[in-house]
Amino acid sequence: MCRDCGCDSANQVAHFVQLVEVPRKLRLEQFVLAKNDRIARENRAWFEKQGMRVLNLISSPGSGKTLLLEKSAQFLRGESHKFKMAILTGDQEKDFDAQRLKAAGAEVLQLNTLSSCHLDASMIQKQLGIFVRPDLPLLVIENVGNLVCPAAFDLGESQKIALLSTPEGEDKPSKYPLLFHEAALIVLTKIDLIPYLDWSLELCEQHIRRVNATAPILHVSAKTGEGMERWFEFLKTGKTA
Length: 241
Ligand SMILES: Nc1nc2c(ncn2[C@@H]2O[C@H](COP(=O)(O)OP(=O)(O)O)[C@@H](O)[C@H]2O)c(=O)[nH]1
Ligand SMILES: [Mg+2]
Prior knowledge:
- Strands 3-2-4-1-5-6-7 form a 7-stranded parallel β-sheet.
- The chain has helices spanning 11-19, 22-50, 65-76, 96-103, 121-125, 149-152, 172-175, 177-182, 201-211, 228-237; strands at residues 53-58, 85-91, 107-112, 138-142, 159-165, 185-189, 217-219.
- The protein has one domain (11-237): 3-Layer(aba) Sandwich (Rossmann fold), CATH 3.40.50.
- Helix 3 packs parallel to helix 4 (96-103).
- It is globular.
- The protein has 241 residues and is an alpha/beta fold.
- The protein has 10 helices and 7 strands.
- The chain binds guanosine-5'-diphosphate and magnesium ion (MG).
- Guanosine-5'-diphosphate binds next to helix 3.
């Protein structure tokens, strides 16, 4: 969790943290995370009771989360009821992503976090039984674009999915290990750009395997469609093979 960027759920707490001595800072940080974890456990129990699957998509801004979800919404429209998807999309401000996703046919709600750089469990809990409903049994959460704080805040999801786009370079899993360690699936996006970059798939996978030995790695281009069938299969079944 970041202590310097105002990422606590209450700004007053973030401001207060700056005023007190280090051990107290640590206690406050633990308090904020412990409170979030408790709400996340409640969310998880609610999702399990309703038979819902919840994916928390985390990556840098611009790595392709929304385009991947636009293509997913278009694909799932033709599928059976049991694959009906809802999307909660998080950004600090504006509803551009919700507009794009709605145009692609998605059931979507924009969450604006304002000063906060991540979604937290209470923001999700407020939507349970309202926007988040069991008649939409797959919930995908597009987290705020950020490789750090969203990884520390459990939302009650079934799985975290990390995206990494080729123009970001190969080394981000080693530099931001928590997200890539926690991810149940890692999606390498924008593979259509490889010919234009000094980017090595082998090196990128070495960085991933330093922090996560087992998560499946997908290679996709939401722009050209390459590799997307494995992503769609994962959305439907939870399996990538
Ligand atoms: N070439 C290419 N561009 C992509 C791909 N996926 C996303 N983009 C572009 O990257 C930019 C950021 O994508 P967006 O989905 O908004 O990323 P987000 O911030 O992670 O939601 C947009 O201009 C997309 O059209 C891809 O697979 N290939
Ligand atoms: Mg987006």
